[in-house]
Amino acid sequence: MRPTTVLSALAAVLIALGALGIGVYLFWDRDGGKDWFYWAAPLLAIAFGGMMATLVAQYWRRVGQLEVRGRPRSG
């Protein structure tokens, strides 16, 4: 695998974990006296983090494992 691919996957995982952490924190932190519609922001952050994690996992399943294995040898 190329180093840029590994760094991109690592960055996506870190972004996903950060978004999930912030989303969960904001979902449980209700001390602000904010309007009723601010409940959607933490859910959107959690959904974004989950989407990023799923994209990395699917990329690894479909492409990453094949790149690590390399080409099959004939004969």
Task: Describe the protein in words.
With 75 residues, the protein is an all-alpha fold. It contains 2 helices and no strands. Helix 1 runs antiparallel to helix 2.
List keywords for this structure.
0% strand, 75 residues, 75% helix, single chain
CA-based shape: rod-shaped
Helical segment tally?
2
Number of DSSP E strands: 0
Class by SSE composition: mainly alpha
Estimate the mean pLDDT confidence: 81
Give the biggest beta sheet.
Answer: none
Cα-atom Rg, whole angstroms?
Answer: 18 Å
Q: Could you give the order of the helices and strands?
A: HH
* Unreliable segments of 5+ consecutive residues: none
Helix content: over 70%
Estimated share of beta-strand residues: under 5%
Distance between the termini: 25 Å
Structure summary:
The chain is built from two helices and no strands. By secondary structure, it is an all-alpha fold.
Topology:
Layout: H1 3-28, H2 40-69
